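Quick one, tokens below. Sequence please?
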């Protein structure tokens, strides 16, 4: 379970830092989406106690999926969506980390 969470977390950091520009944003988006899909079998089921880390990860992936392409048209709004989504993805990956 660590590899997909690490992939999603690193993708979120790459997207948040923005050192690689548009290419880095799409690489980060891809890493978040792959990590989210790969970690789906380990997602918590039901309404039990504790944090639903996978819901945070999936919400972050969804916001990034909207924000990164939107950032090509309107940089401010797209960047805001992408930054919030990447932050949620990183938080979800941290909460889901087995330990």
């Amino acid at each position: 379970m660590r590899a997909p969470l690490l992939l999603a977390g690193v993708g979120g950091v790459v997207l948040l830092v923005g050192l690689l520009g548009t290419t880095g944003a799409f690489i980060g988006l891809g890493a978040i989406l792959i990590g989210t899909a790969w970690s789906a079998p380990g997602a918590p089921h039901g309404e039990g106690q504790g944090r639903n880390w996978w819901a945070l990860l999936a919400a972050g992936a969804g916001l990034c999926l909207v924000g990164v392409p939107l950032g090509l048209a309107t940089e401010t709004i797209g960047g805001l969506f992408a930054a919030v989504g990447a932050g949620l993805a990183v938080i979800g990956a941290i909460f889901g980390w087995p330990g």
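Residues 64 and 82 are 4 Å apart (CA to CA). The mean pLDDT is 91.
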